Amino acid sequence: TGTGIVGRHAGAVLRQLPSVIAPFEEFVGAYPQGRVLSRNTGYTRDYGKNPYRGYDEVGGTPFLFNDPLDPRLPPMERVLGVMRNGVTRVYPLTILLKQPVINDVVAGEPVVVFSRQGMLSALSAERISESRKIPAAAAFSRKVGGRVLEFEQREGRMVDRETGSTWNLFGHATAGKLRGARLAPADSGVHFAFAWLAFQPATEIYGAAGAGNTAKRPATPTDIRR
Known about the structure:
Blueprint: H1 24-30, E1 78-84, E2 87-92, H2 93-96, E3 101-106, E4 109-120, E5 133-141, E6 143-144, E7 147-148, E8 151-154, E9 157-160, E10 166-167, E11 173-175, E12 187-192, H3 193-199, E13 204-205
Parallel strand pairs: 2-13
Antiparallel strand pairs: 1-2, 1-12, 3-4, 4-5, 6-7, 8-9, 9-10, 10-11
């Protein structure tokens, strides 16, 4: 959570920098001059090999986690967690398979969740190149230029209903009347459900009782033991 827990800075909270876990193809399309970390690190390492084969199977159990598991979601379900004004809500990636674009309101703030299918999991097969495909997801504010936009998917593209402009996974308008505009990132990130819910037990779960509905569980002390 970026919160200091011991020492002089206990209680201090680090400012979160926005980031998106995205397919490399999507990154190159958005940032053709973007820099990429070299594999020439000076160490002999097979960076295309996954030492935790099958770790992210939804029916599996988390490794080295000894606390009670939140029963509302499978522990190894990937979720996009969003934080707005002290409220947290998660969007299970299994829902995003059916709803690749979600317009929502979190703590009074209009947000949109974008997802794109086809990213390889780094924790599935022994060779990452052979891993199963999972959605990439990110969340943004829906406010642009003083108005709130509504988004949808059309023929595989993410567009806003007001102008028909096309948007990418990084919240950039790439075509249409709003080309060049950028959505403000929401504080969010993709995590396994067990880890997110351990640190944010009062989280609301999108779709828990039907699309657009949420379910809460009272906060309880918890920790992760390594």
